[in-house]
Amino acid sequence: MKRQIVTFAAVGVINTATYYCLYLLFLTWLPYLAAHILAFLLSMIGSFFLNARFTYRTRPTWRKFLLFPLTNVTNFLITTAGVYVIVDVLHAGSRFAPLLASAAAIPVTFVVSRWVMLPRSIA
Questions:
Q1: Is residue 48 within 8 Å of 68, Cβ to Cβ?
Q2: DSSP assignment string, 27-96
Q3: CA 101 distance to own-chain centroid
Q4: What whole-number distance in Å separates Cα of residue 123 and Cα of residue 120?
C-alpha cells in the first residue's frame, strides 16, 4: 500500500500540473468556473488511465472508467467551492485559486479511488 500512496501522489502531481496548464489555457477565453470544470474533466480522464496503469496496476475497464468520477466528486465539490470562495469572497485572484483549493480533498480521493480500482481491497 505504501507504493500505491507514493504512486498516487506522483500521479496527483502530474494530474494537477495537467489540470493547471489546461485551466490557464481555458482561462484565456472562458470564465474561471467554466475553465475550472473543463480542465478538471479532461485531467480526470488522464488520471484514470495513469492510476489504473501505475498506481493500482489494474486493467482499465468501462465499469471502472464509469465509476472513477465518483473518486473525484468530493474533490470536485471542495475545489469548486474553494475556487469560488478564494476568487469571489476573498478576492484573491483566479490564477492560483485552484492549486490552493485542491489540497484538502486528496486523502478522500485516494481512499475512494482505491475502492473503485481495487473493489476487493479495503481502503
A1: yes
A2: HTTS-HHHHHHHHHHHHHHHHHHHIIIIIS-----HHHHHHTHHHHHHHHHHHHHHHHIIIIIS---SSS
A3: 11
A4: 9
The Cα–Cα gap between 75 and 9 comes to 14
Q: CB within 8 A of 12, min separation 6: which ones? A: 47, 106
Contact (Cβ atoms closer than 8 angstroms) between residue 24 and residue 95: yes
Q: Residue 103: CB partners within 8 Å, gap ≥ 6?
A: none
> Rounded to two decimals, what is the model's pTM?
0.72
Rounded-to-integer distance, Cα 59 and Cα 18, Å: 23
Q: How far is CA 32 from CA 16, 75, 79, 115, 118, in A?
A: 16, 17, 13, 32, 34
- Class of residue 89 by CB neighbours under 10 A (exposed 0-12, middle 13-18, buried 19+): exposed
Task: Convert the pLDDT of each residue in 1-32 to its tens digit.
Answer: 789 989 998 998 899 899 999 999 999 999 99
